[in-house]
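User: My collaborator sent over this chain with a note saying "see what the structure looks like." That's all I know about it. Can you take a look?
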Amino acid sequence: MAPAALRRPGAALGGLPLCAALVLAAAPSARAQEKPSARIEARVLAVTPAGVTLDAGADRGVSVGDRVELFPDGAPQAVAVVRVVTKQSARADWIGSSAGVLPGSRAEIVLTHSDQPQGQTAPAPTHSPWARPAGGFDSNKPLLAPYDGTDAEPEPMRFRGRAFLQLDQLLDRTRRRNYSLARTGLDFTLENALGAPGALAFDGELFDRRVRDKRFPEEDSTLARLDRLSYRGGEAAGSPVRYEVGRFLQSEFPELGMTDGAEVTFRPSSSDRFGASAGLMPSFTPRLSSEDDAQGTVYYRHSFDEADLSSLGVAYQKTWHEGQPDRDLVVLSGRHLQPDGLTLTASAWIDYYRSGERTRSEGPELTQLFLVASHPLGKDAGLGATANYVRFQDILADELPPLASDVLAQSRILRTGVHGWIQLGGGWRASARADRWSDSSESGGSGEARLDVRDLLLSQGRLTGAIFASEGRTNSLRGFRLGAQQDTRLGSFGFGYDFGAAQSDFASGLDERSRQHILRASWDADLGRSWNLGAYIEHRFGTRQDTYLIGFLLSVRL
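Assistant: Without extra context I'll predict from the sequence alone. Here is the result:
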């Protein structure tokens, strides 16, 4: 989970670590792009404070470092960067705000580093002539008898990674407040590091945060953060055992979080996997310290096809807080992915409470449920639905700010929604979404209608228009959004304007009306084949608001 400082805009002008200086020193001069970047559409499967999981992966050309543009309904466009890629999915970390992004939200992944045209497959690899001459086999043996030869040469070491530097500066003229943040980080994977199929992985960053507010003392903090340092083995195809040690996100059930320990997975067949993990649990704090909580997990997953597009799994996790038994959690998850058909992802969390809890009686209770489904209607249209249910768990670990017992006992949040889209021809695309939510005290709903068009005025361009609304018991919002994006040989330029009118009804009978405007501009370009530079500026103004945000992100594929 990302620290709060990393989920808000801002940037420091000093105190940068050494690796930031190295990133800047090695940056090549900007040059024109050879061709616009390819784009593929994806859907959001899961959202966390740290990032987002998408339903597109390496089989569609996604790679680490690719830029993700998300289009949440009723909120400004969000941006993330791909950090982890599997065959059918990818995990991306936020850059700036992630407000409004929910499971089912539409996204576009910019395949910045892809040289392969979309819709084409790579040619079959070539190889040198066979070292073993034809003939010379024993005619008395079966034709398919195993070849009793020498072992294959070990795979060579391969290194891939990404380094980045992000600087943001936020000026709040209304509150006379200045906020800055500098981030720099490095993540890499060294494959076959020990002469055997395996990988050494590292993901860490440093950030420097500074707050200047004339009403309060100055705040300065510099912090190092380690998200991953692990070695995993058993990566060879057909290997019956896979293991990982160090700090890492659990592989089969990443929803169970990060651990400082070990995980082992047994694969007795191509369709079955079972295993266990154990270790300390890093806390949800900026430093990710792992001092108070520990966990042990066992799990099983069955795949219904060779490509692992459809599967079901179950996991049981036991946790301890400061040496005391804390949580008994069962997670059920499944997915059914069809590129041209129904896509379904589901996850259910069931906590089993024992006697002695503050607000819960003994027995099982559903604490989280996530459902995301979509289905194309031919090649040019589709429908989807989402359902999310959350009830705050009654545990000892401080995963949430302390809640009063009555609030904890009644906490329930349910959100359901539907969405649809249709290609109208000529580059036009229409989409709409509606959802309903409720908690223990009130309920409401929201909706959005959106229209996109490509290549209307200029080639490689896109125009966007949307209207949105939300309604609650005491708050309402109405607004619209306009946007434009143009891909050129000098990079991708984006412009946007949002307007929102809100009304709040207080118990005293007083009504408050407010207006908010958002102007934004961005530029994103490749600097050669490995470097990427993005810059952005945003101005929010209206009722009691006048803020400016300016920043840039420089990244390099290693």
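A starting point for your reply to your collaborator: The chain has two helices and 28 strands.
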